[in-house]
KIB1-4 beta-propeller domain-containing protein (Rubroshorea leprosula), 254 residues
Amino acid sequence: MNDPGPSSWNDLGNLYREKVMLLTVGNVNDFVLLTIHLSGKLVMFRSAHKKWTIIPDMPSPYDDVILYKGNFYAVDNTGRTVLVGLDLSVSLVAKPVFGGDKKFLVESRDELLLVDMYLSIESNSDSTGLFEEYFENLSCYMNERTVRFKVFRLDEASQKWVGIKNLGDQVLFLGDDCTFSASAKDMHVSRGNCIIFVDNFFYLNEEEYGSLGNHGIGVFDLENDSIGPLVKYPPCSDLFWPPPQWISSMTLEV
C-alpha cells in the first residue's frame, strides 16, 4: 500500500523539503520523523524500521507539518488539516479554508493556529537593464512578495478553522523550516499582534531600508493590516539588533 522511501540517511537530502518534525517514543533511541516529500506527500521515518515510508494520502500537496500536543499534524494547500498517526493513518482535523497561497501551522498559547499567506509577483521598477539582461537575471528583478496574512484558530469540535483578528500579546514567527510564537512581554517588546516572517523581496531594498533591509525579514501588523520590512517596525526590529548569528549569516539563494 505504501511506497518505501530510501533506507539510507545519505538519501535524506533528496527526500525532504524544508521542515522535519521529531517525536520520541519510549526512549531517545526510538523516534519518528515526519516531513513533506518533494512530491507534496507526507513521509515518515521510524527508527525501529530504519526506512522512510511515503503516506499516499494527498488530495492536494501538503504545505506544512507540526508537532502539537504530542501528535503530528499536517496542512495541505487548501487548508485541509489532518492528524497523522504513527501507523501512517491520516484523520481529518479541519476542513479546507481556501484563499491564500501558502499555509503555516503554529502553536500559540496552547492553541493550534493556521496562518494563510497571500503572495504577489512584484517587479523592481527601478531596474533599467536591457531586455535581454532582464530575462537573464529575472530573479534579480522579479520576486514573489508577501502582501498579507489571515489567521485562524482550530475548532476541533466543528472541524473548522475560525478566523481571528487579534493575537493579543503574541508575536508569530514564520519560516520555511520553523514556526513558533512568543509573548511580546517576555521579549520586552511594546506590543504583540504581529507576524514576523521571511520574505526575499526585502533583500532588494537595502539602499532604502538600511542595514536591516537586506535580511529578507518582514512584519505584518494585524491591528491595521500593514506590511513592510523589519526596519519600519522599531518595536520588532529591536529584537534583531545587533543581528543574531542566524540572521547575519544568511545568504540569499536564487
